Amino acid sequence: MFRNKMQLKFDAISQNEGFARMTIGAFIAQLNPTIYQLADIKTAVSEAVTNAIIHAYPEKEGEVELNASIEGTVLTVEIIDHGVGIADIEKARQPFYTTAPEEERSGMGFMVMESFMDSLEVTSKVGEGTRVLLRKNVETYSAKGAV
Prior knowledge:
- There is one protein chain.
- The protein is of the alpha+beta class.
- The protein has one domain: Heat Shock Protein 90 (2-Layer Sandwich).
- It has four helices and seven strands.
- The strands form two sheets. A five-stranded antiparallel β-sheet has the order 1-2-3-5-4, with helices on one face. Strands 6-7 form a two-stranded antiparallel sheet.
- Strand 6 (about 140) and strand 7 (about 145) form a beta hairpin.
- The chain is globular and about 40 Å long.
- The model is unreliable at about 140-145 (pLDDT under 50).
């Protein structure tokens, strides 16, 4: 079974969201995803990273960790911050809920992640940070069709 993994740590600043998005795209290219799978995964990771950048460190600097692994055709992506944490995960996962309305946020991040990936797990502890775990089975394709 094919296996590969990568780790990336970067400052929690908005300029690094695009960096994370492009990095995950390059990492999953080895699975030869469809353009739709690639777009879905990049969007889900972008949402998770943006959540960490916007919500985890409202009054201080911090870092975001992006860990990804491939086992066979299953991609697992973990986004971790060590920020303020989420007091009520179920509430935070509700559509249109946001802790940053002044930033004109739609509160749809978790819903987007959930709709584009096969699974979404969120764990958090107030004052310690949040971990978002995303999984997607990326069937590989050849020029002749599905393998």
